[in-house]
Design goal:
211 residues; mainly beta; Immunoglobulin-like; five-stranded antiparallel beta sheet; 36% strand
Length: 211
């Protein structure tokens, strides 16, 4: 006579399977929840507005900015494939100057010197021939004035000078500036509009990057 029903072996197998399932579920439940992958965030570079040499630094007119000597001089700049655009803003009613790529101290610095006197803006293209000067205009040395455009304003105790020049002017007395590279510089500020007078407010050096 054929017997029906579950044998002892089958019962043991079934119980074993149930235990395995329960243990597996329990193990899964105690596992820490996976950390979700954060959604990347991107900061968009502001679109630059049109550059104007008017002595007013507008928001998004320049791509980069550095403040020196506790605010005695602020440099704003931007560049494209051909030109450097820069603003020098200083706590002075006198002159402000910057010199690009000096070799030793002031020597061989390609200098831009600016001032505003009685509403008239003067910006000079100079070259320093010695470690402490002098720095005559390029024209006096046989070169050319390569400031393409400039402007300025003196207001509320600040002088602002804006200028535009080629990255590479081809002038013997201008230093070539490298696009997407570092540019070392020296700077100085005086409380007088007399260009022959020495800086007496602040001076220093630094480095910017053209992008």
């Amino acid at each position: 006579m054929k017997q029906s029903g579950i044998t002892r072996t089958q019962t043991i197998v079934a119980i074993t399977i149930v235990i395995i399932i329960i243990v597996g579920i329990g193990y899964y439940l105690i596992l820490p929840s996976p950390t979700p992958t954060p959604t990347p965030t991107f900061t968009e570079t502001p679109t630059l507005i049109e550059w104007k040499a008017d002595g007013v630094i507008e928001e998004n007119e320049y791509a980069d900015k550095v403040t020196l000597a506790d605010g005695k001089l602020t440099i704003n700049w931007r560049s494209d494939d051909e030109y450097l655009y820069m603003a020098l803003k200083s706590q002075t009613s006198g002159w402000v100057a910057i010199g690009f790529e000096p070799s030793v101290r002031m020597k061989d610095a390609d200098m831009i010197f600016g001032l505003v006197k009685e509403g008239k803006v003067t910006v000079l293209d100079l070259y320093s021939t010695g470690v402490t000067g002098p720095h005559p205009p390029d024209e006096q040395l046989g070169g050319t004035n390569n400031i393409v455009e400039y402007g300025g304003k003196e207001e509320n105790g600040f002088t602002t000078i804006e200028f535009k020049r080629k990255l590479d002017t081809g002038d013997e007395y201008d230093n070539s500036l490298t696009k997407k590279g570092d540019v070392s510089f020296i700077w100085a500020v005086a409380d007088t509009d007399d260009s022959t007078m020495k800086h007496n407010i602040a001076r220093g050096s630094g480095k910017i990057t053209l992008k």
